[in-house]
Specification:
heterodimer, A: alpha/beta, Rossmann fold, 6-stranded mixed β-sheet, 4-stranded antiparallel β-sheet, 9 helices, 10 strands, 35% helix, B: mainly alpha, MetI-like fold, 2 domains, globular
C-alpha cells in the first residue's frame, strides 16, 4: 500500500574528530495525507535530524524519504519548514518576508496581483494582517513566529515541517499560537510533522505522537494514536480522562523508559543545522 | 515631526544637536542641559584645554625655522592659504580672458586662422591639492571595494576558497604602503603606456597604492560577515530554492551589510592615511606633496602651513568616516541595534 509520506529505514552518521557519530538508525514512519504528527524525545535524541532529513537539508546515510511515491533528497517548497527561531530576515517587513518565498515558489504561476492577494491572505490566516509592514524587530516573538508560519503556509507545502515552533515562547503566547495552529489546521488540513518537547502540546495538537529513544543510534520507540475529537479545547480537555491517559503514557515513555541523557552524553551531540534544542 | 528630526540627526551622527531640539520643544529642560553638557560641553572643554596646552608649549620649542607656531599663527597661515588660492583663481580667470580676447582678435583679422586654446598651468594651491587627494583616495577606495566585496562574499560562502587564499591575505595585509610604492610606480610606468592618457601616471600610482592597502579590511570583514550568517537564513533560501545569485543578493549581502560597512570604514581610513604617505614619498600631487614641499621650502611660514595641512588631513579623515557611518545607517538601519 502506498503512503503519502514514507520515512524508510533512515539512518545518518556525522563525521566527528573521534570517528563517525551515528545519530539515527532505522527510522521508519508512514504518514497519511492530512495527518498531524508530533516527534517527541529528549534533547539530543535526533528529532531535529529526522526533520532536517525530511526537509532535505541533511542527506540520510542510508534509507530515504518518499513523498507521493517519489524520493526527495534536496530541499524544496513542497516541504516548507518553520524554524524554531522564526528565522525571518530582519531587514525585510513581514509582508516582504512572505513575498520572498511566494515570488520564488509561484514564479510564472501567479500574476502580481494574485501574489499580493495570496501573501495578504496568508498573513490574515495567522492574524498578522495588521502588522504586515512591520519589521521583525518591531514585533513580539509570538508575532514573528506567526509570520514564520505564514511564510511556510504560503508555499502551499505538501508537508509542513515545524522544528519546535513554539519552544522559544512564553506559556501564554505558546497557547495562543497552538490555538491558531489548530484553527488553521481545521481549515487547511495540512500534513504536518512537528517537533516538540512539550507533552501537552503534543497531545493537544497531534493525531499521532512519535516517541524517540535516546541517541546515539536513536530510533522510534513508540507511536501513540491520539483519538480525541476535533476541534479540541484545551480547557475542557484538562479534566478529560482520555487526554490525561495519553499524557501519562508519553510521560511514562520519556521518564521511565528513556531516562534523560542530558548529563551524560550531551557533549557528544553533533551540531545541528537548526539552532538546536534549547531546553 | 520632532521625533523624525531627532531620528535624522542621530542617523547622521549629529547627536550633540539632539538635546537642543528637545529643549526647543520644551522637553524636561534639566535633563537636556545635562545631556547638552555631556555631548557638546565636554568636547568643547577638551578642545579648549588642548589649544591652551599647544599654545603654551609651542612657544617654548625653538626650531631652525623659528619657534613652533601656536594656534593663532596656524590660523593666520590658513588665512594666507585661502588668500593665495583666491589670487591664483583670479590669475587663472585673467589668463583665460586674455587668451579668449587674443583668439577673438586673431579670428577677426583672418577667419581661417587656427587658434590654440591652452590650459592654465599655474601652481596648484593648497585647496587644489585637497581636491586631488580626495578624488585619488576615492578612486583607489572604490576599486578596492569592487574587488574586495565580491571576493569576500565568495570566500565567506566557500570555506575551502577562504582556506586557500587566507595565507595570501595574511601575508599581504601587513605590508606598508611605502614598500608597495616603488613596485607600483615601476609597474604603472611599464604597463600604463598610452599616447593620450586619460589619467596621469602619478594619479594611477597613488590610487593603486591606496587600493592595495585598503583592500584587506573590507575583504576580511565581508568574508567573516558572510560566513557568520545565521544558518537558518541560508536554509530558508534552500527551502524556497533560491537561485544562488539571488541567495547572494537577497540573503548573504543584506545579512552581512553591517560587517561589510565596518570593513569599508576601516578601509577608507587606511586608504586616506596611506595616500598622504604615498604622495609625500612619490611626489605625486596631493596633500602629501604639499606637506613635503613646505618642508623642503623651509621658510618661516612652512611649519605653520604644515600644521594647517595636518589639521585638514585629520578633519577630512573624520568627515570621510562620518559619511560612511551615515550611509551605513541609511542602508542598514538594523545594524545600529545589532
Amino acid at each position: 500500500m502506498n503512503h503519502y509520506l514514507e520515512i524508510d529505514h533512515v539512518g545518518i552518521e556525522f563525521p566527528t574528530k573521534d570517528g563517525p557519530f551515528r545519530a539515527l538508525q532505522d527510522v521508519n514512519l508512514k504518514i497519511e495525507q492530512g495527518e498531524f504528527i508530533s516527534l517527541i524525545g529528549h534533547s539530543g535524541c535526533g528529532k531535529s535530524t529526522v526533520l532536517n532529513i525530511v526537509a532535505g537539508l541533511y542527506q540520510a546515510s542510508e534509507g530515504g524519504v518518499i513523498l507521493e511515491g517519489r524520493e526527495v533528497s534536496e530541499p524544496g517548497p513542497d516541504r516548507a519548514v518553520v524554524f524554531q527561531n522564526h528565522s525571518l530576515l530582519p531587514w525585510l517587513t513581514a509582508y516582504q518576508n512572505v513575498e520572498l518565498a511566494v515570488k520564488e515558489v509561484f514564479k510564472g504561476k501567479k500574476s502580481k496581483a494574485e501574489m499580493a492577494e495570496w501573501i495578504n491572505h496568508n498573513l490574515e490566516l495567522v492574524h498578522m494582517g495588521h502588522a504586515a509592514h512591520k519589521r521583525p524587530d518591531e514585533i513580539s516573538g509570538g508575532m514573528k513566529q506567526r509570520v514564520g508560519i505564514a511564510r511556510a503556509l504560503a508555499m502551499q507545502p505538501k508537508v509542513l515541517l515545524m522544528d519546535e515552533p513554539f519552544g522559544a515562547l512564553d506559556a501564554l503566547t505558546r497557547a495562543h499560537l497552538q490555538d491558531s495552529l489548530m484553527e488553521i489546521q481545521n481549515e487547511l488540513n495540512n500534513t504536518v510533522i512537528m517537533i516538540t518537547h512539550d507533552v501537552d502540546e503534543a497531545v493537544l495538537l497531534s493525531d499521532r505522537i512519535v516517541m524517540m529513544t535516546n541517541g546515539p543510534a536513536a530510533t522510534i520507540g513508540e507511536v501513540l494514536n491520539v483519538e480525541l475529537e476535533r476541534p479540541r479545547n484545551r480547557v475542557s480537555l484538562a479534566d478529560d480522562a482520555q487526554y490525561n491517559h495519553y499524557r501519562s503514557q508519553v510521560l511514562r515513555f520519556l521518564y521511565e523508559r528513556q531516562q534523560n541523557p542530558a548529563q551524560s552524553s550531551a557533549s557528544k551531540k553533533p551540531k545541528l543545522v537548526s539552532s538546536g534544542e534549547a531546553a | 515631526m520632532k521625533d523624525k528630526t531627532i531620528h535624522y540627526l542621530e542617523t547622521f551622527g549629529l547627536s550633540p544637536i539632539v538635546p537642543m531640539v528637545r529643549l526647543a520643544s520644551g522637553e524636561s529642560p534639566k535633563r537636556q542641559f545635562q545631556d547638552l553638557f555631556e555631548k557638546l560641553g565636554l568636547p568643547l572643554l577638551a578642545i579648549a584645554i588642548f589649544l591652551a596646552l599647544w599654545s603654551f608649549s609651542a612657544a617654548r620649542v625653538d626650531t631652525s625655522l623659528g619657534t613652533l607656531p601656536g594656534p593663532t599663527a596656524v590660523y593666520q597661515q590658513y588665512l594666507g592659504l585661502v588668500d593665495e588660492h583666491k589670487a591664483e583663481r583670479l590669475k587663472e580667470v585673467a589668463f583665460y580672458e586674455r587668451q579668449d580676447k587674443r583668439n577673438a582678435e586673431k579670428l577677426a583679422k583672418n577667419p581661417e586662422a587656427t587658434v590654440k586654446v591652452r590650459p592654465y598651468t599655474g601652481k596648484p594651491t593648497f585647496f587644489d591639492q585637497i581636491w586631488t587627494s580626495l578624488y585619488t583616495v576615492f578612486a583607489g577606495f572604490v576599486v578596492a571595494s569592487l574587488i574586495a566585496i565580491p571576493l569576500g562574499v565568495a570566500c565567506g560562502l566557500n570555506q575551502k576558497l577562504y582556506a586557500a587564499v587566507s595565507p595570501l591575505i595574511q601575508i599581504f595585509k601587513p605590508v606598508s604602503p611605502l614598500a608597495w610604492l616603488p613596485i607600483v610606480t615601476m609597474v604603472v610606468s611599464a604597463v600604463y603606456v598610452s599616447d593620450d592618457p586619460m589619467f596621469s601616471k602619478s594619479f594611477i600610482t597613488s590610487a593603486v597604492t591606496v587600493t592595495l592597502c585598503s583592500l584587506w579590511p573590507t575583504l576580511i570583514n565581508t568574508a567573516m560577515g558572510v560566513a557568520s550568517i545565521d544558518k537558518d537564513w541560508i536554509n530558508v533560501g534552500r527551502v524556497i530554492r533560491l537561485h544562488w545569485s539571488k541567495q547572494v543578493f537577497k540573503i548573504a549581502l543584506p545579512a552581512s551589510l553591517p560587517m561589510i560597512f565596518t570593513g569599508l570604514r576601516i578601509s577608507l581610513g587606511i586608504g586616506w592615511m596611506v595616500l598622504i604617505a604615498a604622495e609625500m614619498l612619490a611626489q605625486n600631487p596631493g596633500l602629501g606633496k604639499f606637506v613635503w614641499d613646505e618642508f623642503q621650502n623651509g621658510s618661516s611660514n612652512s611649519l605653520g602651513r604644515i600644521m594647517v595641512a595636518v589639521l585638514v588631513i585629520g578633519i577630512i579623515g573624520f568627515v570621510l568616516d562620518w559619511m560612511m557611518l551615515s550611509v551605513q545607517k541609511l542602508v542598514s538601519p538594523q545594524s545600529s541595534n545589532a
